[in-house]
Amino acid sequence: MDGTLLAEAFYSSFLYTLRISAVVLLTIYIVNYFVNKGLLEKISNRALPLTQKLNLNSFLVSSILISFFSPTVGYTMLADGITEKELTETEVLAGTLANSFPAVLSHMITYYVPVVIPILGYTGIIYVILRLLIAFTKSILGLSILLMISSKDERKVQNQLNNKKNKNNKTSPFEKTFKFARRFVPVMFVSMFLVLYMSKTGFFSIFSIIVMPVTDIFNLNPNTGILAITEIINVSAAMVMAGTFLNDGSLTPNEVLIGLIFGNIVAFSTRSVKHSIPLHFSLFGSKRGTKIILLNSSVTIVLDILIIGFLLMG
């Protein structure tokens, strides 16, 4: 093993774990503090007409709303819900799908609007709409599953809140946060260390090998494959390259969209390993975290493939 690579992976993992742990653990503490103070009950009372009509768990409603501002915090809410036995595994899986649109909308404001649209112009607007459409479809799928579950489950939202309030009064927010941190921090660090080390040794570069043959099979412009490979390496670099190809006429708007979405399929696989595994494993455990990653990745990839098929016919 290369000692330098190990040291770099260790240092980067340490910093990443500190940064993410600060956000997640602070969220866990704040959530439990305000739950003990009855804030979740007050929020649920405000949304009571909707939650009673849909019979959705208050943790699910809170997670979806919070994901508009911070997807990580939204996931943390789901993890806290299943830890407290207020959510079932099926509800958590469906909840992660339901959080898709709020999460992408949040990303649109911070990245797509200031970066993608100025670089790609009209094509960028179409690309953003397609990403939002995919996320919206995932959210509708997740909500549909949740509504089907709720139709078979006669639990009342108010009873859930009362039980939650009574339970949390027995345990301090600090105690609950500390208990969560004992599992979260070590798993996050170890997972991130392994992922970063594999990344630095070039393990993820093998994904680029499958890109060029696919462009040949579908008789696509070679620049489409180059664009897809670039997106695997760096998304912003791919956007700049796409803008260059558009401006010099190397690719049509349709080909740019195909290249970016195709690149997203392969890049999504690598990003799932690089980022999703450490976060999801530390929040939900390896078994449940794997299910969440596979479910969300599979649905996204299927929808991406359908859109590419539609663009190829255009």
Automatic annotation (TrEMBL):
Keyword vocabulary terms for this entry: Membrane, Transmembrane, Transmembrane helix
Transmembrane segments: 14-35, 56-78, 109-130, 226-244, 256-273, 293-313
Superkingdom classification of source: Archaea
InterPro entries xref list: MJ0871-like
Protein name as annotated: Nucleoside recognition domain protein
Organism: Methanococcus maripaludis
Lineage: Archaea, Methanobacteriati, Methanobacteriota, Methanomada group, Methanococci
